[in-house]
Amino acid sequence: MSEHELRVSKIRNGTVIDHVEGGQALNVLAILGIDGSEGLGVSIGMNVPSDRLGRKDVVKVEDRELSQSEVDVLSLIAPEATINIIREFEVVEKNRVTRPETVVGVLSCPNRNCITNADEPVETRFDVIDSGVRCDYCSAVLRSDIAAHIDV
Ligand SMILES: [Zn+2]
């Protein structure tokens, strides 16, 4: 086992989100809606040396697996991330995230005049573009502030 792996101690059941861009770990927790009040065991490695990324963050969440919509949003702030599902201390699944073409129903539009912010039963819908995501209804663009507009 390499020195890098040793920094991430083992969990019994849950999810390890690895290869998160350095500095994004807290945004990852925001996307998952985790603030500590749920009582889940959470550990975070920040700015851990990484061959692939230079510096990376690692987030481990015990007793929690991720939904596809959470993974889709994660991919927007951590495009290189790998999601490891752990059961009984073993990695049973290891997946790279892939950027979706659209994100439906998980982000709120930053434009207060957007129809999705009116009192209408309209689900938000964003197209994923190189620089971030763009609202399908009003073309407002979310870039680095994606995590602040999670609405899961
Ligand atoms: Zn909009």
Automatic annotation (TrEMBL):
<dbReference type="GO" id="GO:0006207">
    <property type="term" value="P:'de novo' pyrimidine nucleobase biosynthetic process"/>
</dbReference>
<feature type="domain" description="Aspartate carbamoyltransferase regulatory subunit N-terminal">
    <location>
        <begin position="6"/>
        <end position="97"/>
    </location>
</feature>
<keyword id="KW-0862">Zinc</keyword>
<dbReference type="GO" id="GO:0046872">
    <property type="term" value="F:metal ion binding"/>
</dbReference>
<dbReference type="GO" id="GO:0009347">
    <property type="term" value="C:aspartate carbamoyltransferase complex"/>
</dbReference>
<comment type="subunit">
    <text>Contains catalytic and regulatory chains.</text>
</comment>
<dbReference type="InterPro" id="IPR036793">
    <property type="entry name" value="Asp_carbatrfase_reg_N_sf"/>
</dbReference>
<feature type="binding site">
    <location>
        <position position="135"/>
    </location>
    <ligand>
        <name>Zn(2+)</name>
    </ligand>
</feature>
<protein>
    <recommendedName>
        <fullName>Aspartate carbamoyltransferase regulatory chain</fullName>
    </recommendedName>
</protein>
<feature type="binding site">
    <location>
        <position position="109"/>
    </location>
    <ligand>
        <name>Zn(2+)</name>
    </ligand>
</feature>
<keyword id="KW-0665">Pyrimidine biosynthesis</keyword>
<feature type="domain" description="Aspartate carbamoyltransferase regulatory subunit C-terminal">
    <location>
        <begin position="103"/>
        <end position="144"/>
    </location>
</feature>
<keyword id="KW-0479">Metal-binding</keyword>
<dbReference type="InterPro" id="IPR036792">
    <property type="entry name" value="Asp_carbatrfase_reg_C_sf"/>
</dbReference>
<dbReference type="GO" id="GO:0006221">
    <property type="term" value="P:pyrimidine nucleotide biosynthetic process"/>
</dbReference>
<dbReference type="InterPro" id="IPR020545">
    <property type="entry name" value="Asp_carbamoyltransf_reg_N"/>
</dbReference>
<dbReference type="InterPro" id="IPR002801">
    <property type="entry name" value="Asp_carbamoylTrfase_reg"/>
</dbReference>
<dbReference type="Pfam" id="PF02748">
    <property type="entry name" value="PyrI_C"/>
</dbReference>
<feature type="binding site">
    <location>
        <position position="138"/>
    </location>
    <ligand>
        <name>Zn(2+)</name>
    </ligand>
</feature>
<comment type="similarity">
    <text>Belongs to the PyrI family.</text>
</comment>
<dbReference type="Pfam" id="PF01948">
    <property type="entry name" value="PyrI"/>
</dbReference>
<comment type="function">
    <text>Involved in allosteric regulation of aspartate carbamoyltransferase.</text>
</comment>
<dbReference type="InterPro" id="IPR020542">
    <property type="entry name" value="Asp_carbamoyltrfase_reg_C"/>
</dbReference>
<feature type="binding site">
    <location>
        <position position="114"/>
    </location>
    <ligand>
        <name>Zn(2+)</name>
    </ligand>
</feature>
